[in-house]
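Sequence only, no structure available. Ideas?
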Amino acid sequence: VFRGIEIVPGVQIGVIEANEADRDTSAVNIAAKYGLTSRMEVDLRASYIRRNDTITTVQQRDEAVTRTIDLSGDGIGDVEASVRYQINGGERGRPIFIAGLRAKSDTGEGPFDIPRDEFGVATRLATGSGFWGVEPSLSFLYPSDPAVIFGSVSYFAHLPRDINKTEGGVRIGEVDPGDAIGMSIGFGFSLNPKFSFSLGYKHSYIRPTSSELNDIVEKSDSLQVGALQFGMSYLLTDRFSLNGNFEFGVTEDAPDMRFVLRLPIAF
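Reply:
I predicted one. C-alpha cells follow.
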C-alpha cells in the first residue's frame, strides 16, 4: 500500500506499507434435525465462535518500522433455522429436487456492537454478522450408480439495518450488507457400505455492501469466493457416523483452508 502523493509517474512522496494479516477462526456447532414428514425436515443450529487476527504492518521510511496488532474475540455466534422439502421422488431416473429456506439471526456480537477506541478502531473481534439474513435454495441429487451427483443454487439476502451511531468521528447510518449468489456442484462415491467420499466445488458472488457514512452512501467491492471441496464419511454404528470435509480456497477472497468435522447421531 502506498500512502502519499505521486508527482509524476515513478516519482512518489510518502510511505510504502506492506501488510500481512493472518486470520484464524474456530467454531463448535450443535445442530438438531427433525423429520416432520417423509419429505420435510426442520433444522436448528447454534455455534460458539473463537477468532484471532494477527496483522503485521511494515513501513519503509529512513528505517523499517514494524507494528503487530493482535485482536481476538469469542462468544455465541448467529443462531440459524432452516426447513427443507423434497419436491419429487426421483422416479424413472429423474433427479431428486429439494427446496430449502434458511433464516440467520443476529444473536452473535456484530461488527457494530463491539467496543472501539476514540479513533474507531475495534478492540476485539465480532462473533456474528450483526444482521438478519434469509436464504432460499434449490438442490438436486442424481443417482448414477455407483456415484451420486449433487449440486445447488442459492440466494442469501441480508436485511439492512440502521446503525445510528458515531464511531471515530464518523456518523454511521443505514448499512445494507451485500447479498450473495451461491452455487455448488460435485459427486459422492461409496467404496463400501461404511465408507464414502465426495469431491466438489462451490462458489459465491457477494455483491457490494452499501454504507451510509456522514450522510454519504459508499459501496465496497464485490467478492468472488470459490473453494474446492473434499469430504469423507465413515459409518461407525447404526446411530453414529463420522464426517470430515476440507475446503481449499481458489480465489483471492476465499479463506486458504477450512476443515469441518461432524459427528451425526441418529435418534
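The mean pLDDT is 89.
Hope that gets you unstuck.
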